[in-house]
């Protein structure tokens, strides 16, 4: 079986260690893709950069699946990093601002 996104066995094994204990399969499938697309080399590389990548993957997943919002610069970064990832099973969220606008 081919490794995902043409990654090495080492990278595929490394990314599997990043799954949260309570992370649902459909969340993990997409966050895993985000991580692999943006890993940019060996998992043994710069630990600070890898920690940042893991954090950004969680920001992106929280935004997509839970409706969390973050500062504009962070959102622009994670959406750029996630470009091309097709999420078909994400819930639709209504923000407080959208609810207030509907009442007005």
Automatic annotation (TrEMBL):
PROSITE patterns: XTBD. Residues 15-103 form the XRN2-binding (XTBD) domain. It holds the Pfam family XTBD. It comes from the Eukaryota. Coiled coil: none annotated. Belongs to the CARF family. This is XRN2-binding (XTBD) domain-containing protein. The lineage of its organism: Eukaryota, Metazoa, Chordata, Craniata, Vertebrata.
């Amino acid at each position: 079986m081919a490794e995902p996104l043409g990654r090495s066995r080492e990278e595929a094994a490394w990314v599997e260690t990043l799954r949260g204990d309570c992370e649902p399969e459909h969340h993990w499938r997409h966050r895993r893709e985000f991580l692999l697309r943006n890993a940019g080399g060996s998992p043994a590389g710069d630990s600070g950069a890898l920690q940042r990548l893991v954090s950004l993957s969680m920001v992106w997943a929280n935004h997509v699946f839970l409706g969390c919002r973050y500062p504009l610069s962070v959102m622009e970064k994670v959406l750029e990093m996630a470009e091309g990832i097709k999420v078909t099973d994400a819930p639709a969220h209504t923000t407080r601002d959208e609810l207030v606008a509907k009442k007005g």
